[in-house]
Write a structure and sequence with these properties.
Distance between the termini of chain B: 19 Å
Shape of chain B: globular
Mean pLDDT of chain B: 87
Helix content of chain A: 40-55%
Structural class of chain B: alpha/beta
Strand content of chain A: 5-15%
CATH superfamily of the largest domain in chain A: Cytochrome-c3 Hydrogenase, chain B
Order of helices and strands of chain B: HEHEEHEHEH
CATH topology of the largest domain in chain A: Cytochrome-c3 Hydrogenase, chain B
Mean pLDDT of chain A: 84
Structural class of chain A: mainly alpha
CATH architecture of chain B: 3-Layer(aba) Sandwich
Strand order of the largest sheet of chain B: 2-1-3-4-5
CATH class of the largest domain in chain A: Mainly Alpha
Radius of gyration of chain A: 25 Å
Number of domains of chain B: 1
Strand order of the largest sheet of chain A: 1-2-3
Low-confidence stretches of chain B: none
Order of helices and strands of chain A: EEEHHHHHEEHHHHHHEHEHHHEEEHHHH
Largest interface: A-B, 35 and 33 residues
Helix content of chain B: 25-40%
Largest sheet of chain A: 3 strands, antiparallel
Radius of gyration of chain B: 17 Å
CATH architecture of the largest domain in chain A: Orthogonal Bundle
Number of strands of chain B: 5
Strand content of chain B: 5-15%
Distance between the termini of chain A: 65 Å
Low-confidence stretches of chain A: 288-298
Shape of chain A: globular
Oligomer: heterodimer
Number of domains of chain A: 3
Chain lengths: ~450, ~160
């Protein structure tokens, strides 16, 4: 019997990365086919954080959708808030006040900086640069303090309202913001010194995970990813909303579309955001604060007592103080940030607490089946979120609940193109590339 | 120091238990099972501003076999629930679980078809930290409560 030559079957190895993997952010499963150390094919499985945003939105009133939008892209919740608000405002056909537009721009840019900080911090940490993580978390903390000052919460803020924002910004915000921005700039400078010319960082990011221009266009990729590939598309420039057309800022573009370009684009975008915030704070219109008839603030519950006694004369222009959680929502301040539209905007807190008209107006807007009822129709509105074009497609059937709220999450398209970025590179590059696309599961899986 | 009564275990045993409890509570190796928004506050609590390294919990281990406290951070959907259970089962005794954020405590306002209504329907939970997401101060408070619990419990030696 002739000896049969032993045959060895050579197969590619399949490995699972995630979902419980530190670099997959807990919610992504990548099935990678490896030939040695080289990645041949990658499939991404998503949906581990599906929280039924769109279905929940159909079961809540137009305003109640706001907290759900916070949790879409939870790294920059303010942009989501304002994106949703803008879509509903477009449907309602209302114009928001000038001051509110500036507030929205400032807060959006603060949010954008926190998002980019987190993205670079996390991806650097995954590659072993723990210092960068600590520096950028420190910088993010300074901005969270600002966000907390303005909105009352650190992360899930629900600051947007249909027709404006929850309340006016604190009076001394300008100085605090400036000092926070200075500190953030210092951290940016330090990390720039640490990473940009760092041999290890450059070796691990340059020419890795290249996204070609053609792929970016055909997969509808937007945001820093597309701009790193040289596509000059920024919703703020292409379809200016709020007051972005009055702001002077540059859109950084990359050349190759590799991880290094994406890092540089994000770093530069943060500097541009700081520029925008400074301009917006400088140009923000104040608007008159109504003069109070007594010369000093009155507590709102005193006002209620006055009104009960029938002493309502002269109460219209009285400036009241409300409890700290409601500050910025007193009448003179609210008038600056909200349009006069009784069918949409809640009355100021001192109106709600002091006179029956305000109270009724409040109830009419809060009660089920009585709230904001946009006319029948549908509309789409997109804002530039930290990851790209974040669009809301809202459909109304004339009732107080949305008929449909569809989100165009920028991450979804980034994840769709991910396999193009990973195939052909080493298995260790999966971590570096995946970190650079800034996948946020909240908006990816919704 | 607890007083030694005739019924209680001997002096040496109780002293040893105290020492082991003290050692265990200050050497928490945590496994962060981070899925969602709470991860941002988890990062804040871990970074230099709040720094839970001060409580001996600063070194996350990403292998369940090396960890003894499971931090479940963020919404657990039905799709990821079996993975959470698997991670918990892979951890060695003694082990503890912290439910971080209201989604893990009760499901929070995600009262829908996709979300697990509290992880205590899947795995036992020691400490609940509510909040959406909890502030880092609340996280530190929860961590200290867990330390007290570890110190007080009967130590498996």
């Amino acid at each position: 019997m002739a000896a049969v030559a032993p045959t060895r079957e050579v197969r590619n190895m399949l490995i699972n990365i995630g979902p419980s993997h530190p670099a997959m952010h807990g919610v992504i499963r990548l099935i990678a086919e490896l030939d040695g150390e080289k990645v041949v094919r990658v499939q991404a499985e998503i949906g581990y954080l599906h929280r039924a945003f769109e279905k929940s939105a159909e079961n809540s009133s137009w305003t109640q959708v706001m907290p759900y939008t916070d949790r879409l892209n939870y790294v920059s919740p303010l942009i989501n808030n304002f994106g949703y608000c803008a879509a509903v405002e477009k449907l309602l056909g209302i114009e928001i006040t000038e001051r509110c537009k500036y507030i929205r721009v400032v807060m959006s840019e603060v949010s954008r900086i926190t998002d980019h900080l987190t993205c670079i911090a996390a991806s650097a940490m995954e590659m072993g640069a723990m210092t960068v993580f600590l520096y950028f978390m420190k910088a993010r903390e300074f901005l969270y303090e600002i966000v907390e000052d303005v909105t009352g919460a650190r992360l899930t803020i629900s600051y947007g309202r249909i027709g404006g924002v929850k309340g006016d910004i604190p009076e001394n915000l300008g100085e605090k913001l400036e000092s926070a921005l200075k500190k953030v700039e210092k951290e940016l400078y330090e990390v720039d010194r640490l990473l940009t010319r760092n041999r290890i960082w450059v070796d691990r990011t340059r020419d890795i995970g290249i996204l070609t221009r053609e792929d970016a266009v055909s997969y509808a990729v937007t945001g820093p990813l597309a701009r790193a590939s040289g596509i000059n598309y920024d919703v703020r420039k292409a379809h200016p909303y709020l007051v972005y057309d009055r702001m002077d800022f540059d859109v950084p573009l990359g050349e190759k579309g590799d991880n290094y370009d994406r890092y540089l684009v994000r770093m530069e975008e943060m500097r541009q955001s700081i520029r925008i915030i400074r301009q917006a704070m400088r140009e923000m219109p104040g608007g008159p604060v109504a003069v109070d008839s007594r010369g000093e603030p009155v507590k709102s519950f005193d006002l209620v007592d006055e009104a009960k006694m029938g002493r309502t004369a002269g109460l219209v222009n009285v400036r009241t103080t409300v409890e700290p959680t409601l500050s910025g929502m007193e009448r003179p301040f609210l008038d600056r940030v909200m349009p006069h539209d009784r069918g949409v905007v809640l009355p100021s807190k001192d109106d709600t607490y002091s006179n029956i008209e305000g109270l009724m107006n409040h109830f009419k807007l809060i009660m089920d089946y009585h709230g904001i009822c946009p006319p029948r129709g549908d509309t789409y509105f997109a804002v530039e979120a930290a990851n790209g074009e974040l669009g809301f497609y809202v459909v109304s059937d004339g009732k107080d609940r949305p008929y449909r709220v569809r989100v165009r999450p920028p991450c979804f398209f980034n994840m769709a193109v991910l396999h193009k970025l990973l195939e052909g590179y080493m298995v260790a590059d999966i971590i570096a590339t995946f970190g650079s696309i800034n996948m946020i599961a909240g908006e990816l899986d919704r | 120091m607890s007083s030694v009564t005739p019924e209680s275990p001997g002096f040496i045993t109780t002293q040893l238990e105290q020492v082991v409890g003290w050692a265990r509570k200050f050497s928490i190796f945590q496994y962060p099972f981070v899925t969602a928004c709470c991860g941002m506050e988890y990062m804040s609590a871990g970074a230099s501003h709040y720094d839970f390294d001060r409580f001996g919990a600063g070194l996350p281990r990403f292998s369940p076999r090396q960890a003894d406290v499971l931090f479940v951070v963020g919404t657990i959907s039905h799709k990821i629930a079996p993975i959470l259970r698997m991670v918990y089962d892979q951890m060695c005794e003694p082990k503890w679980v912290i439910a971080f954020g209201v989604c893990t405590c009760t499901g929070g306002f995600y009262d829908n078809y996709a979300t697990v209504q509290g992880i205590d329907t899947i795995i036992p939970v020691d400490i609940y930290i509510p909040g959406c997401p909890p502030r880092p101060e609340a996280v530190l408070d929860g961590l200290m409560k867990l330390q007290t619990r570890i110190q007080k419990q009967k130590q498996a030696l």
